[in-house]
Amino acid sequence: MLVIRDLVKVYPGPVTALAGVDLDVPRGMFGLLGPNGAGKTTLMRILAGLLEPTSGTATLNGQPMLDRPEQIWEQLGYLPQDFGFFPHLTGERMLEYLLSLKGVTGKSGRLALRDELLDRVHLSFAARRKVKTYSGGMRQRLGIAQAIAGDPRLVIVDEPTAGLDPEERLRFYRLLSELAENRIVLLSTHIVEDVAVLCSRFAVIRSGRLIANTTPASARSAIEGTIYEGTLSPDSYHKLLTSSDHCVTQAYLVEGNNRVRVYQPEGSPPEGFAPVAPTLEDAYLVLIKLGRLYGLEPEPLGVSAALKPTTNGAGAPSAVGKGGES
Ligand SMILES: Nc1ncnc2c1ncn2[C@@H]1O[C@H](COP(=O)(O)OP(=O)(O)OP(=O)(O)O)[C@@H](O)[C@H]1O
Ligand SMILES: [Mg+2]
């Protein structure tokens, strides 16, 4: 179990990137969702020992992580958001180099480990190709190979699926799920689909605060019966957007008209709108707009942070639509 308590990070500026995060992360795949600038990378870099927190603690299976990060490095794997590559090296040379940086000594052991890792991430076939010829998904898999060297208990991956096409994303999902069978995999993303497909639990972070810590099923059922969908002309869509009676969660164009979903916990939905089954995307968008999901049952893990009302402007629910603040 990874246990994070009251983690605060204030960058010079000052910019409060984390405003007191409490989170318990059990074994398996755990998603950290949040919009750009929410604080995901900051949290992950702190856990990886690359950035000093302003205050707060984190323990991995009871062992403190933040005071002497080097003591816990062996149990940690990290794939950063901006993983650097050496384009002219072959995949196997690059991995060998990264393993030497990680302190894997002894050439023959290192080569054996390199080959085993390449096999693990399904890259043996491209071991001798230059990294510059790799696709985005292949690069991410090479990044994962270095992150899982030494069989770490905790693997941290920061937005690994950005820019991957659907097929590569699927392959990467499979690899992550395999890894999460016997360790903690903490995955940050702003793609709700990643979480819906992969994670048994997830947390949502916004402006440096956790605003939910739950399961995909609970998040969906919290808004059951409140999502309606309908089709609108561009004109009516614009009117709806400026109306204070409705909260639009999603809108997409279909043959020139707007297919629109609204969150309507009380009052009437727009004319012609019909109730639909909520998706995780709806739940996430309501959360991001309102700052909390009414009806979300307290969960046994990390409860305090998830549902605590926020007290200052940064995390306070913004007034979107009607009925959210009852
Ligand atoms: N080195 C820094 N100095 C000052 N402010 C920073 C620094 N790094 C990040 N920030 C700020 O801290 C906040 C959180 O940034 P962070 O990169 O952790 O967000 P994120 O959730 O990872 O975003 P993204 O989805 O875009 O990767 C942002 O407001 C960002 O501008
Ligand atoms: Mg980031």
Question: Can you tell me about this structure?
Answer:
With 326 residues, the chain is an alpha/beta fold. Among the domains are: 2-83 and 144-215, P-loop containing nucleotide triphosphate hydrolases (Rossmann fold, 3-Layer(aba) Sandwich); 225-277. The chain is 30% helix and 26% strand. It is built from ten helices and 14 strands. The protein has a six-stranded mixed sheet with strand order 6-7-8-3-9-10, sandwiched between helices. Helix 2 (91-101) runs parallel beside helix 4, helix 4 (136-147) runs parallel beside helix 5 (166-179) and helix 7 packs across helix 9 (280-290). It is globular. The chain starts with a strand and ends in a 19-residue tail after the last helix. The chain binds adenosine-5'-triphosphate and magnesium ion. Magnesium ion binds next to helix 1.
Quick gist of this model?
The chain is an alpha/beta fold. It has 10 helices and 14 strands.
Keywords:
326 residues; 10 helices; binds adenosine-5'-triphosphate; single chain; 26% strand; six-stranded mixed beta sheet; four-stranded antiparallel beta sheet; 14 strands; Rossmann fold; alpha/beta; binds magnesium ion
What's the Cα radius of gyration?
22 Å
Low-confidence sequence ranges: 300-326
CATH homologous superfamily name of the domain at 2-83 and 144-215? P-loop containing nucleotide triphosphate hydrolases
In the CATH scheme, the class of the domain at 2-83 and 144-215 would be Alpha Beta
How many individual β-strands?
A: 14
Mean pLDDT: 86
Order of helices and strands: EEEHEEEHHHEHEHEEHEHEEEHH
Give the strand content: 25-35%
| Category by helix and strand content | alpha/beta
Quickly count the helices: 10
Percent of residues in helices comes to 25-40%
Strand order of the largest sheet: 6-7-8-3-9-10
Report the major sheet.
6 strands, mixed
The span between the termini is 36 Å
